[in-house]
Amino acid sequence: MRFGGLLVGLVLAVGVAGAAVALHAREGNPQFVSAQRALAPVAAAALDALVLTTSDPRPGYAGRARAVHCAPGSASVLGNPWSCLVRYPGPPDLLYRVIVYGDRSIYGLGQPVAGRRYEGQLIVRGCCVAPS
Questions:
Q1: Can you tell me the distance from the alpha carbon of 13 to that of 29, in angstroms, rounded to the nearest whole number?
Q2: Beta strand ranges found along the chain (DSSP E)
Q3: Tens of pLDDT along 73-107?
Q4: Contacts 24+ apart (CB under 8 A), 28-36
Q5: What was the pLDDT predicted at 30?
Q6: Segment (H or E) for 9
Q7: Dist CA 86 CA 122 (whole Å)
Q8: Where are the domains of the chain?
């Protein structure tokens, strides 16, 4: 019975040590936090300019975006999530929900604003939104 108590004590000690390591790992990286706080706001015109460089992702369509209008979804520094209406050479226009990451890269999923919805994913991605 003495070994049972020793085994329970050992398991508890390992659990407490693991919890301490996990809590320490959750502490913020001061360099990362300060970099995030110093982010310049994302301007709609800068995001428009980046999305304007994308190609039509629809199967059977080709060409670069001809016009873009993006609007922020929040008042945060990055403005996420953004709504971007993109006009490519072939109709219909696509509406993307775009996320701007801390490194200024973007990723968005879209669907046509009119007509049939696509079963697959229409993706827009790029790097990097110019600081305003």
A1: 27
A2: 67-71, 82-87, 94-100, 106-112, 122-126
A3: 999 999 999 999 999 999 999 999 999 999 999 99
A4: 35/102, 36/102
A5: 52
A6: helix 2-26
A7: 12
A8: 2-37, 44-126
